[in-house]
Amino acid sequence: MQGDIDRVLISREQIAQRVRGLADEIAAVYADDAAGLVIVPILAGSLIFCADLIRCLPFKMRIALMTISSYRDKTTVGATPQVVHDLTADIRGRHVLVVDDILDTGNTLGLVMRDLARRQPASLRMCVLLRKKGKAPPSLKADFVGFDIEDVFVVGYGLDYDNHYRNAPDIGVLRPELYA
Ligand code: 5GP
Ligand code: MG
Questions:
Q1: Where are the alpha helices (DSSP H) in the chain?
Q2: Which residues form the domain of 51?
Q3: Is 139 left (phi over 0), alpha (psi -120 to 50) or beta?
């Protein structure tokens, strides 16, 4: 697997350090209303990021899972996202933090945020590990961002290509000949 990576963009050490920093930022913002916080990891991409992030958070929380498919086995962009598994908990009146791997065009998180806002949470914020800056509409702002990256297709640390490479510890760019 490691031999399939052309170059590492963000190393596991850089990720670990930034995840701790993000947790500090999140803890500061929710200092007064962490009680009843619901974390919504968007599966499957945020699996590893969210697992690391929430273990750095110093307060109690609940988790409500949501699975979105953008139907992209490959690297194509612009597919219409769909809710594959709906939220596993009621969020009305709760503080809600959505956690995802990457904000690219914003199609996916746009759908998620509109959908969750309709359920009348007390507050609704978004945390992404990666952002391809300037691609999502200005109205869709991430409250917490791990790294701004260049507009390249990345894998690892939860991010996949054809559902592979999610377990790669670093975030990197695949060797071009591996893209079908
Ligand atoms: P958006 O809907 O914002 O265009 O893209 C969000 C979703 O597309 C992400 O949750 C992720 O599943 C996928 N995606 C976007 N850019 C990348 C990328 O560079 N690498 C991988 N592996 N997935 C991406
Ligand atoms: Mg995703």
A1: 12-29, 47-54, 107-117
A2: 12-152
A3: alpha
| pLDDT (tens place) for every residue of the chain, 180 residues total | 878 888 999 999 999 999 999 999 999 999 877 778 999 999 999 999 999 999 999 989 999 999 998 765 555 555 788 888 888 889 999 999 999 999 999 999 999 999 999 999 999 999 999 999 889 888 899 999 999 999 999 999 999 998 999 999 999 999 888 876
The residue whose CB lies within 8 Å of the most ligand 1 atoms, and thus the one to mutate among 82, 101, 105, is 101
Residue pointed to by tokens 């194509």: 76
Total tally of structural domains belonging to the chain: 1
The CATH number covering residue 39 comes to 3.40.50.2020
Q: 177 lies in a domain? A: no
Catalytic positions:
104
33 C-alpha to ligand 1 centroid (Å): 31
